[in-house]
TrEMBL record:
One of the GO BP terms on file: cell redox homeostasis
Keyword Calcium: no
Protein name: Thioredoxin domain protein
Residue span, Thioredoxin domain: 1-123
GO MF term (any one): protein-disulfide reductase activity
């Protein structure tokens, strides 16, 4: 992924797709690429695959809101530009940043592959905000939630922000969290975790009033999760698994699995807790 300055944001929606020729190439591609990635689409009117890929690129360029610009070059009208870029077949797509080709592909790729390619060559304008939100999760989850909302306001399709927002809200016992987790697309890399995490609702919605025995421990675990004290919650749930699997239809084990899914395998508590749970079960 290439770096980019905030000057990219000045590109207007009308400039998302531009026609480029030999006379405008210096200004519209080389100079513009100093601050904004430019994706060149070498095409021709008679090219069938070009007519398939072109509309996809144009739609994605408008969708990107100025984070990159699509420059369309008709190879029949601009053969010297095609020769300069060593175009052997069309459609030929090349990403240019600061005057250099950073990546390219040839042929009419499906939209999913084009999107994946763009993620490699075009910087995510929300990357810094996303990193800040993730860093705040442990110390100030309310602020992290606010920042995830801000990201989604700018980029509603940001799956990382969507999952993390749903995850934090669900762990706090906010019903919006479950609704948000259900919005994670099935095609997302977060889909399995979001689905597995839905069961956390049974835990965090447990009554706050004290109770005796295993039910009391379960309610204490629920309060601990809502407060962000996951270590205490895990200890109490493991204790219940070890002595009372019948409670809430094996509810403690189900709650642990949901908690593991939402925290993620890279969380320092999850690995050891998974091993302890396995020892209790097997």
């Amino acid at each position: 992924m290439v770096g980019v300055t905030n000057k990219a944001s000045v590109t207007t929606a009308q400039e998302a797709v531009i026609e480029v020729n030999e006379a405008t190439f210096e200004r519209d591609v080389l100079q513009r690429s100093q601050t904004t990635p430019v994706v060149i689409d070498f095409w021709a009117p008679w090219c069938g695959p070009c007519r398939v890929l072109g509309p996809t690129l144009e739609r994605l360029a408008h969708e990107a809101g100025g984070s990159w610009v699509l420059a369309k070059i008709n190879v029949d009208e601009n053969p010297r530009l095609a020769q300069m870029f060593r175009v052997q077949g069309i459609p030929a797509v090349k990403a240019v940043y600061q005057g250099k080709i950073v990546d390219e592909f040839t042929g009419a790729l499906p939209e999913s592959q084009v999107r994946a390619w763009l993620k490699r060559v075009v910087p995510d304008p929300n990357a810094d905000l996303l990193a800040m939100a993730q860093a705040l999760e442990a110390t100030n989850p309310a602020e992290a939630i606010a920042r995830y909302r801000l990201i989604l306001g700018q980029d509603p399709k940001n799956e990382t922000a969507l999952f993390n927002l749903g995850r934090l809200l669900a762990l706090r016992g906010d019903p919006e969290g479950i609704v948000t987790l259900k919005q994670v697309p099935a095609s997302s890399s977060f889909s399995s975790r979001a689905t597995a995490g839905l069961a956390i609702a049974n835990l965090v919605n447990a009554p706050a009033e004290p109770a005796e025995g295993s039910e009391g421990l379960y309610r204490q675990a629920a309060a601990a999760v809502r407060a962000g004290d996951y270590a205490t919650a895990i200890e109490q749930l493991l204790t219940i698994v070890g002595r009372d699997r019948a409670l809430r239809d094996d509810g403690a084990r189900k709650a642990l699995l949901a908690l593991f899914a939402l925290l993620g395998d890279d969380h320092p508590l999850v690995g050891p807790a998974r091993r302890r749970l396995a020892n209790l079960l097997f």
